[in-house]
Amino acid sequence: MAERKPIESWLTDMDGVLIHEGVPIPGADAFLKRLRESGKPFLVLTNNSIYTARDLHARLKRMGLDIPVENIWTSALATAKFLDDQRPNGTAYVIGEAGLTTALHDIGYVLTDADPDYVVLGETRTYSFEAMTKAVRLINNGARFICTNPDETGPSLEGPLPATGAVAALITKATGKEPYFAGKPNPLMMRTGLNAIGAHSETSAMIGDRMDTDVLAGLEAGMITYLVLTGLTTPEEVEKYPFRPSHIVDSIADLVDLV
């Protein structure tokens, strides 16, 4: 195997890598500080589409993690970039929160339930039967089905919550239409993120805690991948997958000296 080039830019997942249940993971602040000091391009990624990058910046700063707004890349932003490339100034019926609606407004989309080009499903804590029924009818009438991410569950202090992927499965069952997922593990999210910071996959690394999203997306985008064991994946679970990360480390703290 050809030797990889030195890492010049870093992409890292947020939940399970930098924070866990609203608390910074030891070493996360040191890693981010080293990144900022190095001047190397970096992005913090999340499949969560609820919050805008500005919201996340404020929330993370309250936890003691200072991440500039321009260094945060969400599945909502990746979805908006995809739709802007596919059908500029289009229309969409949206199920989601401010992170998604703001991203779509920013690219000039009109949000409507009157014959929209797309039904766009994102993360929300208040999925309603009425909204899902409307989505089903619009898709049956010809709207294209887009989802921000395929995660079936999300974390909370009380335990796992149904997430976008689970609701997407319900809509697919009712319509027979599969959605296009813009977020991880779609390498599109990684490539649009790399483009946003002027980085190249062959000199970039992806850090994540999930094999099925973070590692897979990084692998398919041609990046070096690091799996940390502070999130959802155990060493035993790694062996169940037909692919492997480039490296497995205990936590983000083990990567500080690599920046």
Automatic annotation (TrEMBL):
<feature type="binding site">
    <location>
        <position position="184"/>
    </location>
    <ligand>
        <name>substrate</name>
    </ligand>
</feature>
<protein>
    <submittedName>
        <fullName>HAD family hydrolase</fullName>
    </submittedName>
</protein>
<dbReference type="Pfam" id="PF13344">
    <property type="entry name" value="Hydrolase_6"/>
</dbReference>
<keyword id="KW-0479">Metal-binding</keyword>
<keyword id="KW-0378">Hydrolase</keyword>
<dbReference type="Pfam" id="PF13242">
    <property type="entry name" value="Hydrolase_like"/>
</dbReference>
<dbReference type="InterPro" id="IPR023214">
    <property type="entry name" value="HAD_sf"/>
</dbReference>
<feature type="binding site">
    <location>
        <position position="15"/>
    </location>
    <ligand>
        <name>Mg(2+)</name>
    </ligand>
</feature>
<feature type="binding site">
    <location>
        <position position="13"/>
    </location>
    <ligand>
        <name>Mg(2+)</name>
    </ligand>
</feature>
<feature type="active site" description="Nucleophile">
    <location>
        <position position="13"/>
    </location>
</feature>
<keyword id="KW-0460">Magnesium</keyword>
<feature type="binding site">
    <location>
        <position position="209"/>
    </location>
    <ligand>
        <name>Mg(2+)</name>
    </ligand>
</feature>
<dbReference type="GO" id="GO:0005737">
    <property type="term" value="C:cytoplasm"/>
</dbReference>
<dbReference type="GO" id="GO:0046872">
    <property type="term" value="F:metal ion binding"/>
</dbReference>
<feature type="active site" description="Proton donor">
    <location>
        <position position="15"/>
    </location>
</feature>
<dbReference type="InterPro" id="IPR006357">
    <property type="entry name" value="HAD-SF_hydro_IIA"/>
</dbReference>
<keyword id="KW-0119">Carbohydrate metabolism</keyword>
<comment type="similarity">
    <text>Belongs to the HAD-like hydrolase superfamily.</text>
</comment>
<dbReference type="GO" id="GO:0016791">
    <property type="term" value="F:phosphatase activity"/>
</dbReference>
<dbReference type="InterPro" id="IPR036412">
    <property type="entry name" value="HAD-like_sf"/>
</dbReference>
